[in-house]
Amino acid sequence: SNEVITPLLQGFKSHTLADQSNAALMDRVDTKFILSMSLLKAFLTELNDEYTILEQEGRRLFTYETTYFDTPDRCFYRAHHNGKLNRNKVRFRRYHDTNTAFMEVKFKNNKQRTIKKRMPLDASKPDFKNAEQFLIANLQHQVRYLETALFVKYQRITLMNKNSTERLTLDVSLNFKSTNAASQVSLPGMWIAELKRDRKPYASSFLTLIKQHQLSPVSFSKYCIGSALTDSGELKTNRFKPTLQKISRLTNIEKININT
């Protein structure tokens, strides 16, 4: 809960959004880890020497609300599930605390790099018509068929390494909701760390801690995992089984759909 997390964030020196956009990492290598909530304190305590924390208007923990779009037959989901590279994700992301919003297209290329394009939209009443040209330019022919596919909400801590182009996001309080609101899943027992950097590994205190705890990277797409968790049985999920089983161990979710 926030009462537990907020005091732990005070130990960090802060940086601003402007500092951070100097290391925007729009073309990057991402590595993700799923960790038990019981490890959050140890990590935050260890990292505050080498990292600064994003602070805006006195806040250090930010709420993100994301709406993912896909085609009626879930072509983006299936491309990811089937391991296709050169694949897209489309999302509308609202930064709750600053009331700003963007339409975003993420492209994962065949070199395993993630390239992100975004355009600002009105957060309070987004006009998706405005985003159409942007989507056509970045998605080609699939735009006509896009529909709302999943709602995701979580809180994020963003850390920046003082010594290298490395950003670390820690996501807590994950919540997924299907578009018909028939199914909602929260994951309070775990958090996701995502390491974003401009090239392959170099030593950092985060990676040292990861080694000490013998944690290995996982494949975790919020869109795909959230879709698999809230799905009523239509989607293929077998490729995500290892991640779903890991989540199942860390959280007390009974209803995790691990059928193929």
What does this 3D model show about the protein?
This protein has helices at 2-9, 17-21, 40-47, 75-81, 128-139, 205-212, 222-230, 241-250, and strands at residues 14-15, 27-36, 51-54, 62-70, 87-95, 100-108, 114-121, 147-161, 166-178, 184-187, 190-197. The radius of gyration is 18 Å and the shape is globular. Strands 2-7-6-5-4-8-9-11 form an eight-stranded antiparallel beta barrel, surrounded by four helices. It has 260 residues and is of the alpha+beta class. Residues 256-260 have low confidence and may be disordered. The protein is 26% helix and 35% strand. A hairpin with a 4-residue loop joins β8 (147-161) and β9. It contains eight helices and eleven strands.
Low-confidence parts: 256-260
What's the β-strand tally? 11
> Going across the major beta sheet, what is the strand order?
2-7-6-5-4-8-9-11
Helix content: 25-40%
